[in-house]
Amino acid sequence: MLTPSNKALVPFISVDNMMGLVHHIGIETFIINLAAEIEIDFKRWPMFDKTPRIASHSDVGVIELMPTSDGEMYGFKYVNGHPKNTKKGLQTVTAFGLMADVQSGYPLLLSEMTLLTALRTAATSALVAKYLAPKNSSTMAMIGNGAQSEFQCIAFKAVCGIKKVQLYDIDKEATSKAMSNLTSLGLEVISCTSPEEAISGAEIITTCTADKQCATILSDNMVGAGVHINAIGGDCPGKTELHSDILRRSDIFVEYPPQTRIEGEIQQLSADHPVTELWKVMTGSIVGRKSEQQITLFDSVGFAIEDFSALRYVLENIKGTELFDQLDILADPDNPRDLFGMLLRAKP
Ligand code: NAD
Q1: Residue 294 within a domain
Q2: Looking at the 3D structure of the chain, how many domains does it have?
Q3: What is the pLDDT of residues 280-321, one digit of tens each?
Q4: From residue 258, how far is each of 52, 56, 303, 327 by CA, in Å?
Q5: CA-wise closest residue to 156 among 185, 176, 179, 180
Q6: N or C: which end of the chain has fewer CB within 10 A?
Q7: What is the pLDDT of residues 3-44, one digit of tens each?
Q8: Whose CA is closest to atom 4 on ligand 1?
Q9: Residues 139 and 108 both lie in one domain
């Protein structure tokens, strides 16, 4: 049995081991537990170092670094967003991340985070819906049936008790793929031929499309009173999914306003348009859903604290398992000041 080393060998979670860990815990239990960890960290929001993520944009996509620290541990994620990648057989979003000990600065964990990002995004969406969606919601529209979509559907089933998902994508193959992946996971799954059909009767609408432009996945007349919108896909400057009139009719909830103002749906609004920080809803200082008629909108862009919670959860759960490797990525001379001597002694 492996034990994470706290010195020079750094535990590393490969994609294989991440999949092993998720199945070891169970997909739904993993998401439920992860949502609980994210909730814990949102409730201690003021303790964290916070900064909008550091983004490097190109014509085809974005590469971002997402750091944060709670004073004891420091974490960051490297993540890309390249909507045209799938045409080349590559993923739109890939990621890896690291957690370190603030006292020594030594890494505690290096991990794949492509799967973990999908899991944490879904866990965050469902956690937020637990606070904002109409009580006893049973149907969710899932618009955009790409890599994130099944994670979202399963999270809403596990955390919010959603029973039925109505899928729509401009690419029918994506919907067929999601239908087949979700079959036998305990959800009623409906394939739809238009976004209007997908949102019909749904109390929750999730938009998760990828396009580096200001698209209109939902127009104002499509959205009725009382729904909760979980807008995942608009997460970059110049990339939005909702018509701005929907935003004006909604109460808007965000992770970290300085980042969401640049990247979220609210980039379409004036910089002083009121938004509510989710951590304040979770700590109970602000009420989220106030009436049956209210449209609540989670303008999700993904924030570093969610990745921090996810890495913290993985670090805790690999203990006592063999679901990690140990990487020799830190030079560790016997005499800490003799780095050069260590190099000389290694001469072949
Ligand atoms: P993906 O490329 O695998 O899937 C996107 C899907 O959207 C594709 O199937 C595509 O056909 C579909 N689509 C595009 N335009 C559409 C339209 N007009 N109507 C319906 N469907 C449409 O991408 P993914 O990995 O699932 O990610 C989706 C989006 O979510 C990306 O923009 C990504 O950056 C974003 N994302 C956000 C977060 C967050 O925390 N908010 C986290 C991860 C990913």
Answers
A1: yes
A2: 2
A3: 999 999 999 999 999 999 999 999 999 999 999 999 999 999
A4: 6, 17, 11, 36
A5: 185
A6: C
A7: 445 468 999 999 999 999 999 999 999 999 999 999 999 999
A8: 146
A9: no
Indicate yes or no: pTM above 0.85.
Answer: yes
Residues 135 and 222 in one domain: yes
Residues 25 and 2: their CA atoms lie apart, in Å, by 18
CATH number at residue 44: 3.30.1780.10
Kindly give the distance from the C-alpha atom of residue 103 to the centroid of ligand 1, in angstroms, as a whole number: 38
**145 CA: nearest ligand 1 atom:** 9
- Confirm whether 245 is a catalytic residue: no
Q: Residues with Cβ within 6 A of ligand 1?
A: 81, 86, 92-93, 117, 121, 143-149, 169-171, 174, 208-211, 215, 217, 232-233, 235, 300-302
Which residues have CB under 8 Å from 320's CB, separation 6+?
Answer: 1
In terms of residue numbers, what domain contains 315? 9-115+305-345
Selection from 236, 264, 237 nearest residue 252 by Cα: 264
Give the number of other CB atoms < 10 A from CB of residue 167: 26
Which protein residue has the closest C-alpha to ligand 1 atom 9?
146
